[in-house]
Each structure stands twice: as C-alpha cells, then as structure tokens.
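sry for the spam today, last one i promise. struct tokens for design, 328 residues
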C-alpha cells in the first residue's frame, strides 16, 4: 500500500502516558486560591443558595475550614466579610475586632502557613453598598475614599494578613494603600490589585453571598467597561507603577483574551478570578446532568492557566482538589 504524506498528530495522544508527557499546562493545588465569606454573629455554616456547595462561615467554623484548605495544599484563601453593622463610611471594615480581622487571626492559629489574602473594598461595609464614600449627589467620591481604603488595608495587616487585595477600583488606591502600609511598618506586605476588574453580570451570585448589592445605581461608573481591552491594560500598567506586586483580571472566562494580553505585557505574577457567576453556571448545569462537573471544572481551571494566570482564584478549588484526592 502506498504511504500518504501527512502529519500524524494523533501519535502523541494515543495513551494517557504520552498525553501526560507532552502536556503544556498544569493545574496544581498550590496555584489555587479559595475565597471564603465570614459572617459576624453566625454560628456554624449557612449555605449560599445561589452558589451550590458554598457556605457563609461563622467565626467558629473558620479554623476547621482553614485546616481543610491547608491539608489539600491550596495556595491561599481570599477573605470577604459580612459585618455586624454598616454605616455610610464602612467603618467596621477597619475595626481591630472586625469579622475579617478576627478570621485572619483564627486562620493564622489553625494553619500558620496558609496564605491569607484580604479583599479591600468598602461595599460589604457601607449602608449604601457602594465601594467608596458618597458625595451629596450620590456619586462615589474617589479621593475621599482613598484614606478609608488605606485604613482598612492597614487594619488587615495589623491582624496578620499576608497579602492585601484592593478590589474597589478607585484611582490611586494602590499608591495610597502602599504608603499607609509602609508608614505602619508593613513594607514586606505585598499588594495584589484587582487591576482589570470589569463591570460584569457574572458577579450576581456573589452579591447574595456577601450582601453587597448597591442600594441604588450600579458600579459601571468605576469598574471597567467589558468592551475595553486596551483601557484595561492601561489600568494594569497604572497599578504596577503605583506599586502593585501582583495584578488580577476579573472575571476570568469571558476575559481570557485580556488575561493573555496582561501576561504578555507584564512581568509581575498575574491572578485571574473565576467568579461566582462562572461557578454557579457550571454547578447548575452539572446538577441537571448536562455536563460532567469534575471534567468541566478541570477544563475551566486549565483554560485559565493556559491563558496566562499564575494564580487562579476559584470557588472550585476544594472540589478540584477533592476530585484528585489531595488532602485525603
Ligand atoms: Zn466593592
């Protein structure tokens, strides 16, 4: 028989061993960050309806959770707080005995090596639910919000937080937070900035989880327009110039092109946030038997890594590790 002349790509796909040998992209537990919601006054756990498989945690449940996360080898935990009370300025965000500050101290006792990342934003703590303080006309006052965000960041560092992650999208916040951390002796505390954070419909389930829906209006006045890739890149460069040690793209899946561009343009570590809506869509389809949950999770996390993320922040972190037997 005559031999045809063409490339046989299937040769390297033939067995699991060959596929493993030539695999370009790996996900490991150490690349993953697991977000948790800590609620003041809650005892135990409260399931989050819009995010099947995720719970709000009371402070009494934080230590066991931290030990479980550390046992799986997960790289870090990202903390969000639901405070006991809210006001116009979000003052419970910088309380020394605030819910996240207390959670960090408990995590550090339970799992000292687990990296704690503190989200910095006022929207979970303000009565109006916006990410900064308001002017009389109801618009968010960028410059007056900066000292408050810096105060929250420094209070988290006081509690032992390893990484400060501002998500508010105020201009100048990275510089303001860096100056405040340095002035308080936290020169060694890194900043992971939510640099390319888009005004996304995929944050919907998070707002139930964190109780942070704005009382009026939306966040399109300060978060990036989903249509703007170049402007998002500009914002990434600005945050790095202000002192960000790492930058984030959020959400992940509808913005993998942005993630790739960021990865190609900067040399600092890049994180991507696989957000609540991405999580809940996958879980809802899996619950209906429409997709294979664990394979879809693995493909999702692999695609985010392949697009250039060093760090993947994902609600699937524990499920992915569980499916692979980590921490058993
Ligand atoms: Zn916010």
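last one done:
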């Amino acid at each position: 028989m005559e031999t045809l002349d063409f490339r046989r790509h299937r040769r390297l796909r033939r067995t699991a061993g060959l596929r493993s040998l030539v695999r370009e992209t790996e996900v490991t537990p150490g690349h993953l960050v697991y977000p948790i919601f800590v609620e003041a006054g809650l005892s135990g756990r409260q399931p989050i309806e819009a995010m099947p498989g995720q719970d709000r945690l009371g402070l009494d449940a934080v230590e066991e959770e931290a030990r479980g996360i550390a046992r799986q080898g997960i790289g870090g935990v990202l903390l969000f707080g639901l405070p006991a009370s809210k006001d116009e300025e979000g003052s419970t965000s910088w309380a020394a005995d605030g819910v996240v500050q207390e959670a960090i101290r408990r995590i550090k006792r339970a799992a000292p090596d687990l990296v704690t990342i503190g989200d910095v934003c006022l929207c979970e703590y303000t009565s109006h639910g916006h990410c900064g303080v308001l002017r009389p006309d109801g618009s968010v006052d960028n410059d007056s919000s900066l000292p408050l965000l810096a105060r929250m960041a420094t209070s988290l560092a006081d509690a032992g937080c390893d990484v400060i992650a501002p998500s508010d999208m105020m201009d100048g916040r990275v510089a303001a937070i860096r100056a405040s951390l340095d002035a308080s002796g936290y020169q060694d505390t890194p900043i992971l900035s939510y640099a390319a954070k888009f005004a996304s419909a995929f944050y919907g389930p998070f707002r139930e989880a964190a109780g942070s829906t704005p009382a009026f209006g939306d966040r399109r006045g300060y978060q990036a327009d989903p249509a703007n890739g170049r402007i998002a890149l500009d914002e990434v460069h600005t945050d790095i110039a202000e002192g960000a040690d790492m930058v984030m793209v959020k959400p992940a899946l509808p913005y993998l092109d942005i993630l790739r561009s960021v990865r190609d343009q900067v040399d600092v570590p890049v994180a991507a946030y696989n957000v609540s809506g991405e999580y809940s869509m996958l879980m809802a389809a899996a619950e209906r038997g429409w997709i294979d949950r664990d394979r879809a999770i693995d493909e999702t996390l692999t695609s985010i890594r392949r697009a250039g993320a060093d760090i993947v922040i994902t609600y699937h972190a524990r499920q992915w590790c569980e499916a692979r037997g980590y921490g058993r």
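Residues 121, 123, 131, 167-168 surround zinc ion (CB under 6 Å). ok im logging off now
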